[in-house]
Amino acid sequence: MPHTDRSLANGDATDFLKSLGFPSVTVHETFTHFDFTSPGRRVLLIGPMGSGKTEFSARVWRDAAVAQKKSDVVRRLTATGDVDRRKVFFIRSELDATRFSGYPDDAMAYRGGYIRCGENIARIKDSFGLEKVIEDHPDIGTYIIDEASFFDERLVYVVRNHSMQRGVMFIFPTLILNFRRDIFNSTARLMLDMATDVIPLTAYCEHPDCMKSAFYTYRYYQVGDKECPALYFDPLIIVGGDEHKVDSFQPNYAARCDEHHYLPGKEYTFFHLKPMGMMAARGEENPLRSELGALKGNIGKSLLYRNLAEGTPDGLQREMFLNSLLPANIAEKALAYLFSEQNLVPEELLVRLVSELELDREYLQKVLEDNRRPVVFDQQLLFS
User: For this protein, what is the EC number (predicted)?
Assistant: First the structure.
């Protein structure tokens, strides 16, 4: 008998059910178990913070536990050589050690709970660490790599090679967009290029007055009772815990819709800050030094304040944009951005400006190390 496509569009399905005497309902796609039979998949789970990416991964883990109880007949469907995709291993970045300090060492933690991974969990620093884990576990067929955008670009090619050559499946619960609503970094861009599947997840906008879908991760500081959006040039990576913080140094994150995702300082970054960095790279340091001095000691005299105060119309957005000036170390963040992301300020000038302006060395040292541009500020002795 020839195969007949019996799939129905939602409207057709509703009419069909009515013809059988059922009430009118909206028929949604089936929420299915995870597929471990297809070899070599590279699955991106994308969405803002709080959208359930790691919780989805926990579902995969639980589905795998059920699938592993099946017979050897099933293994022929889920295995490629020695690799069995029902065997799952969870990988996190070493940077995340402080985020989950309240959980067991073997926990795959997510908002509202966690599952225990036993020995099938590791923290790695980079793509070489991933290679070592794979080498040590030749029978593992599925790797869940949390926040893969935090790793080096080489990891993407390690993943591609093992998936294509050995049938290993990789799942990436990760941010593709950063808090600036830009592609997170070049690793994220390469991951999009090599993915075979993309599963987008959303969340409710976490603004208290909103129920829209949120697609973006919003970074803000809680200074007293004020919500202070992160400036555009805030460090790309800031390592910290997931709990809410009232802190001028450590940010919070929320899923937000377009309307409630505030991002002050973007125009300033490209109209003022970056050009001053380019001038400093050519030896014209005074404009940058003057602006950093104002950001540190008298922000009302800075170009940043003028840009936000004069360039934003009255109303809630203006209030929120001006709140962005309340968190600490804005000068340090501006300088770190020019050094670690734009590669405009040479290390010698960075160290000298930190010394001359008495900037927060401890803060800068940690931020630059987390963003993979470590600097030793004791070099100031060379210029004294």
Answer: 2.7.1.21
